[in-house]
């Protein structure tokens, strides 16, 4: 049996076969749905943190989400993110200190992060 993969999303996105957003409105008040939203929110914080680091390091355009109009474009984006994650992890393994490159424009909370922490966050997303 093939394992299913889903994209976690915030409530702004519509639910689909691939996308699992938080429940909103009246259905969010159901106890099970409320628990789901709580667990999703905890995961989303870590995911947003990891994605923010990838965006900072690889300069993903902010408009990227507006460019994904079909499955082909989503597949391309997934390949892009996986490739950047692999490159990031490879650089982390050889001790790359990329924060030093941005002395004046440090990413948010850079002083509290290590490459090992970032690598764990990104790897745990899978």
Automatic annotation (TrEMBL):
Annotated TM spans: 74-94
Taxonomy, superkingdom: Eukaryota
Keywords: Membrane, Metal-binding, Transmembrane, Transmembrane helix
One example GO MF annotation: metal ion binding
Cofactor(s) needed for function: a divalent metal cation
Pfam families: DDE_Tnp_4
Protein name: DDE Tnp4 domain-containing protein
Keyword Transmembrane: yes
Native organism: Austropuccinia psidii MF-1
Lineage: Eukaryota, Fungi, Dikarya, Basidiomycota, Pucciniomycotina
Residues covered by the DDE Tnp4 domain: 2-89
């Amino acid at each position: 049996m093939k394992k299913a993969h889903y994209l976690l999303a915030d409530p702004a996105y519509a639910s689909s076969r691939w996308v699992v957003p938080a429940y909103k409105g009246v259905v969010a008040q159901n106890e099970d749905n409320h628990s789901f939203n709580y667990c999703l929110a905890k995961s989303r914080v870590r995911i947003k943190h990891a994605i923010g680091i990838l965006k900072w390091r690889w300069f993903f355009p902010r408009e990227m989400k507006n460019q994904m109009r079909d499955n082909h474009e989503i597949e391309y984006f997934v390949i892009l993110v996986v490739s950047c994650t692999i490159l990031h992890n490879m650089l982390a393994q050889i001790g790359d200190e990329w924060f030093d490159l941005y002395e004046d424009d440090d990413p948010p909370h850079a002083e509290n992060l290590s490459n090992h922490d970032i690598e764990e966050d990104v790897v745990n997303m899978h």
